Amino acid sequence: MTKPSNQRASPAGPAGRRSRKRRPGTPLAWSLSIVAHVLLLAFAFLVTWSVVDASEDDVESRILAPPPPRTFEPVSTLRPTEPIRPAPTLPARRPTESRPETVQVAEVADLIFAADDLLLDGTDLAGGEGDASLPGIDFGGVGAPAARRIVFVVDASGSMIGAYPAVIDQVERTLRRLVPRQSFSVVLFRSGGAEPLPTGGRLRAATTPAIDEAADWMRDLRPEGRSDPAAALRKAFAVDPEVVYLVSTDITGAGVYEIDGDALIELLDELNPADDDGRRKTVIRCIQLLDEDRLGTLRKIARMHGGDAQESGFAFIGREALGLDR
Prior knowledge:
Elements: H1 14-21, H2 27-64, H3 105-124, E1 137-139, E2 142-144, E3 149-155, H4 164-176, E4 183-190, E5 193-196, E6 204-205, H5 208-220, H6 230-237, E7 243-248, H7 261-271, E8 283-290, H8 297-304, E9 314-318
Parallel strand pairs: 3-4, 3-7, 7-8, 8-9
Antiparallel strand pairs: 1-2, 4-5, 4-6
């Protein structure tokens, strides 16, 4: 069957296909493309403008808007964000009686002795041995050079029972004539041993309280036992005295309690040696009580340890002078 005559036959071969690809698009297609791009650009511009305009309005509103009025509330109206828990109450303690703190006697004694040491250290700078500004010393009519350091070595053996109270009174009177710049100690010998005034191995300043304590201490002790002054003399010289008063009824004892007088003198030579000029550091004054010593030991000690032409350093006080024969 043959095709109608009004239809054209397409060119055959490759030349006909190339002519079909190079055919340009129609004007309608170009117009639609341009319109679409214009609309797209317009939409993008519109969105951008609206965002910028909104941000400027927001900034302007923040700047121009008036701040809210200030309000002040009292602190008491504030409320905590969390409830405050009440502090736990401790059970009330039962009242207890307050007890005063106990002070050890040794602590008080140390304080007293420390005060004495300060007082005596200050007086050591004021003058030397035999300082004329210090009062002289006299015991039982036996004088001694003015001195700062004095020790009494007193017989408190059984033979002193009758004379002991009068001797203690005499020691106390002598102490009360001293001044606080002078210092003292007391050593009793009884029962074959020595009992020093409890001062911790130191001298006491001659203050009224110190003398009161010493007098009470001596009166609280009772004479007893045998007489042996060796230990008492060692303790007396341990505190470096300037004057020692040695008071006894019978310094060497008697019978089974008798000691060697020569041994006692040798002990004193050891404790208080003489220098090249024959002078000794400590002056010893001796008081013989009740009865004369047939050996004369105390008289000899006084002569060797401080006696001179003006002062023998020895005295005898009999029973009558002590009021024991009435």
